[in-house]
Amino acid sequence: MKTDYQRSFTNYLYLQRVAPKTRQSYLYSIKSLSTYFRQPADQLTNDQIQEYLLHCIQEKKLAWATCNVLFCGLKKYYQGFLGRDKTGFSIPPRPRSHQLPILLSREEVGSILKATGNLKHLALLTLIYGSGLRVSEAVRLQAEHIDSKKMLVRIDQSKGRKDRYTVLSKHSLELLRDYWRTYQPGKWLFFAGDKNKPMPSETAQKIYYLAKQKAGVTRGRGIHTLRHCFATHALEQGVQLFILKRWLGHASIKTTCMYLHASPEMLLNSVSPLDSWSEEKRQ
Predict the structure, then answer these.
(1) Is 227 a catalytic residue?
(2) How far apart are CA 266 and CA 32, in angstroms?
């Protein structure tokens, strides 16, 4: 049961148009802080809040990303909602990470898709790979988002509250048409047990893991690997970096450039400009 301050903060987050998952995380941050001190959150001092953050980092050993969400939730509550002029609590800056995504070959992706016996599951995974979708984007798709004339997929209010279009493959479109005739989905293209609700992202993740296990593929991580593979394979076949940036919905071209470093095939197939010039001179 929510307390008065939780209800008020919830309403504030709604008015601020905070995304549902972020809103839930922020509310959890305040609840956890109050539970730790056994006091209402609005009565706590900056020193107490800093003590709690240090407890999460040093004793609970939470990951940086988790601590950052916690910190942002507390800052939103105390600075935004309560209007405190100064909040002296903080967390250490994010450690630098240069990890590249673990990629699968086209053959490995193909084997995962072939191992998916269910038509609904196959249409979902094929669309994620063929259009470079985030799983959260795929499960929120509606029929009106599929533009078969222009061969595009419209993504509404994705990460960063941005709309975008990405490519629709012919193979995905054929599967979607078969899937539509067979399952007759309602509002949501990929629905849950109840057709009035979208498939949970966790369900899509389980579908991917099961197909991956059946295919005997051990490399790579979760379903987001399909989006990484889409980006890298698209670059390898000559898609321009700027176009790929638009398809993926990246805010910065620097994020898209990561896939240039992730593809060893692009490095192996590239030659020195001197060799290219020498070949032209011989002709």
Answers:
(1) yes
(2) 48
Query: Is 55 tagged catalytic?
Result: no
Q: Tell me the C-alpha distance between 83 and 52, whole Å.
A: 20
The reply to whether 224 belongs to the active site is: yes
Q: Of 84, 159, 214, 246, which residue is the catalytic one? A: 159
pTM, to two decimals: 0.70
First to last CA, the chain: 79
The 10s digit of each residue's pLDDT in 63-105 is: 888 888 898 999 899 888 988 877 778 777 766 655 667 889 9
Which residue type is seen at 210?
L
Helix and strand element counts for the chain (H, E): 14, 3
Domains of the chain by start residue, with CATH: 4-81 (1.10.150.130), 106-268 (1.10.443.10)
Phi-psi region of 132 (alpha: psi -120 to 50; beta: other; left: phi over 0): left
Q: pLDDT tier at 1 (50, 70, 90 boundaries)?
A: very low
What pLDDT is stored for residue 179 in this prediction?
A: 96
DSSP conformational letter for 144 = G
- How does 72-88 read in b/e, with b if 16+ C-beta sit within 10 Å? ebbbbbbeebeeeeeee
Question: Which entry of 134, 164, 212, 245 is annotated as an active-site residue?
Answer: 134
- CA torsion 186-190-192-198 (nearest 10°) is -80
Q: For 175-230, write each residue's pLDDT tens digit.
A: 999 999 999 998 999 999 888 899 999 999 999 999 999 999 998 889 999 999 99
The residues, ordered by sequence, that sit 6+ positions from 90 with a Cβ below 8 Å of its Cβ are 50, 53, 71
